[in-house]
Amino acid sequence: MKTRSKLTNIDSLSTEVQERISRQPISNIHWVHRDELNPNLYNPNKMAPPEMNLLIESIAKDGWLFPICVLPKDVHIEGLTDNSQKDRYTIIDGFHRYKTSGKTQVYSLTDGFVPIVFPSGVDHIATTVRMNRVKGTHTVLGMADIIEILIAQGKTLEYIMLEFGMEAEEVYRLANRKGIPKTEIVTQAQFSSAWTPS
Questions:
Q1: In this structure, are residues 69 and 183 in contact, taking their beta carbons and an 8 Å threshold?
Q2: Is the pTM for the entire model greater than 0.85?
Q3: Which domain holds residue 151?
Q4: Is 197 domain-assigned?
Q5: Residue range 165-196, pLDDT digits in tens
Q6: Is 32 helix (H, G, I), strand (E, B) or coil?
Q7: Where does a domain end: 92, 109, 134?
């Protein structure tokens, strides 16, 4: 596969490629107020409070990186959409992003406006489930590698907990998998690297 070493101006691509790109949902992001959105009635995905807090922190610090996938306002499906509110878009994927958009830190970024896209597929339940499943999970060993790198960089326990939404015990367990004792992390968190025990 041919790789490009710099950003390509889309206007320099062939008309056929430009047309295919223009049909992709991500090429057609719209900004609407969060009050125009409704959750669907079937999403099985749940998010625990620590991950929800991390999502709020992520959007507040990094901005809106992912749009919310929705059905058009005129699409209503029995059992899938809240047909009592037909003047709203129904969320297919991004319910938790929508939920966090009501929090002050996120709301204030765009005055409550959120990015939406309309997916190409017609099986909306399948789209929701696919989106939930393809996000994947972090492997324990992969996260342990990251913790090891952060500790080597001199990051404190408090920094890791705050930035990654982890409890201290989780950091200790991951570090321990790499042979880093709990005492080393606690020492780094409480003392400078120049400190030595007497």
A1: no
A2: no
A3: 140-190
A4: no
A5: 788 998 898 898 888 887 777 754 443 444 44
A6: strand
A7: 134
